[in-house]
Design a protein that fits this description.
Length: 159
């Protein structure tokens, strides 16, 4: 039996090549992964103030965690995709000037372009101001108005 053990250098080269391939195939996720690393690092506040605050961020992909309020929200908490498959922990808040129509379920995939207003490093939460037209994938509809039926008129046969 011929067993071959790869060197650490060979393994590292493969991982680096895989990381580069992943970054090319998933630019939105790679961007957010880098942003998260920078914001949670020792110089996170400086990074945010210098590179992000009040600057339009390119399109990011996210999954809805919760809506505030649950119907016609003005705030959506989302888990921005970074390749980690964590879709339950919110790391961004999307704020809107006017309520969005209806609601969507947790886990709904959205894309957005927003302007970061503030952030906290631990736990990570970036607050974005988002224009309605910069939110994509929102399918919420207003609930239909209740239907009121007129009472049936009594007929002579039913007396």
């Amino acid at each position: 039996m011929d067993t071959k053990i790869e060197s650490i250098v060979a393994i590292t080269k493969k991982q680096f090549a895989n990381e580069e391939e992943w970054r090319k195939a998933h630019p939105q996720e790679a961007l957010w992964k880098d942003v998260k690393t920078a914001l949670t690092g020792a110089d996170g506040a400086n990074y945010f103030n210098t590179n992000m605050k009040d600057t339009q961020v390119p399109t990011l992909k996210a999954k809805v965690v919760s809506l505030e309020p649950a119907n016609k929200p003005k705030t959506i908490l989302v888990a921005v995709e970074d390749g980690s498959n964590n879709t339950e922990t919110a790391d961004a808040t999307l704020k809107f000037e006017a309520p969005l129509p209806g609601k969507v379920d947790a886990g709904t995939e959205l894309t957005f372009e927003g302007v970061p207003e503030s952030y906290t490093a631990n736990p990570l939460m970036v607050v974005f101001n988002v224009d309605k037209d910069k939110l994509h994938g929102w399918t919420g509809k207003n609930a239909p108005a209740p239907v009121h039926h007129k009472p049936k008129a009594k007929t002579s046969a039913s007396k």
